[in-house]
Amino acid sequence: MEKLKNKVAIITGAAQGMGAMHARKFVEEGAKVAITDINLEAAAKLADELGKNAIALKLDVSKADNWSEVIEKTEEKFGLVTVLVNNAGVGIFKPLEELTEEDFRLTFEIDELGVFLGMKAALPSMKEAKVGSIVNISSVDGLVSAPTAIAYSASKHAVTGMTKGAAAELGQFNIRVNSVHPGVIESPMAEQGDVAEYIKQLEKDIPLRRRAKVEEVSNLVIYLASEDSSYSTGSQFVVDGGMISDL
């Protein structure tokens, strides 16, 4: 199918979970992919599995110098970067009274600062290529919010706002910027203990009565990275089974 033929993509947090599915799908669609993650061992294992069109690079998204290294190494291996998927994220869910400054700062550094640094780092490469698509993974909590989600929601709302601002600024360079807002996703973490019970309760209120499969999010990310979405920028793409449709 090769919807992403000739695309060079950097995907953050791509060693496992949703990010790993993005990487698999991107390679299937013809892209060359830098699989970046703080866990280099897991990233390297996935890159080896995916073959010559994937490389693994260690990345702490909160460090500007690390971002510069990733851009340089990706360009050396594959050429100019034309797609960036800011997928790396952390979720800390605690009542306000229990939420610590450390929790808040960690969430900010990964979920918000990491997106800013990624867009800034990829911009020169995309400008030189004269084309680019930035896909920022936000959340339904970047459009609404929920109890215990103060730190997470604050950062994801910031991602939504940054996406709009970047889209308005970068359109003149043929660089599109959109955000993706997943709801409840099937994942190993969602099957554990109290979380599993909470998710089951949430499912009852989702119009489609189920969680999203990871690939359903990846398919949307591929659409936004591809030329199929060539006139879409500055928009929020929700993939939540109707979860927030009445809000």
From TrEMBL:
Give GO terms: molecular function aspect only.
oxidoreductase activity, acting on the CH-OH group of donors, NAD or NADP as acceptor
- Which terms does the UniProt entry file under GO BP? bile acid metabolic process
The record's keywords, sorted A to Z, are: Oxidoreductase
What the entry lists under InterPro entries is as follows:
NAD(P)-bd_dom_sf, Sc_DH/Rdtase_CS, SDR_fam
Domain of life, per UniProt, equals: Bacteria
| Family, per entry | Belongs to the short-chain dehydrogenases/reductases (SDR) family.
The record, for PANTHER family, names: 3-OXOACYL-[ACYL-CARRIER-PROTEIN] REDUCTASE (PTHR42760:SF133), SHORT-CHAIN DEHYDROGENASES/REDUCTASES FAMILY MEMBER (PTHR42760)
Query: What's this protein's name?
Result: 3-alpha-hydroxysteroid dehydrogenase
Q: What is the lineage of its organism?
A: Bacteria, Bacillati, Bacillota, Bacilli, Bacillales
